[in-house]
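Posting for a labmate who doesn't have an account.
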Amino acid sequence: MKTYFINEDVTGSPSTPYTPIFGTDGSSPKWLWDGLMDHNAYAVDLKYLNQSNQLFTATYHLYVGDANGNPVSGYGDTTTTWRWQGQAVVVVPTPGIAWSRSQMVISWPPTVTNLTLVSVDSLAESNWLAVTNTPLLLNGRATVNLDSSSAQKFFQLQLEP
């Protein structure tokens, strides 16, 4: 999980949106409060989202520290755990179509792993059927080769739960 903070200026408008914190993108694992209203934002790689309303937690150790981030004695500290449910926002890639000899080649970036290539003979149909050819990774893309008889079909990528 990646963690960012969104800092608000005195008017309440974001002044530095999505600044990496807590080790995200090489930032320090410690965060120095700037005295302004800040909000955490979390990002989870799609490969880790595997169920609807998935639970996430973040545990924080809060303390008063010196300029080097070391706890100052005489002040209390606490540990708190935040819990929330995640909801995936998934952009399904558009497949690319090309011809290779007598085969049609359909490919897409493999960034979303729970996709199924489906097809119908006519767009008037509502029952899209899964293409049974197993996608192969070729030149960094998930690729399915189909014979020329498939050229009369319609294809789309369908997100599976």
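Reply:
Got it, the structure tokens are right above this. The chain is about 0% helix and 45% strand.
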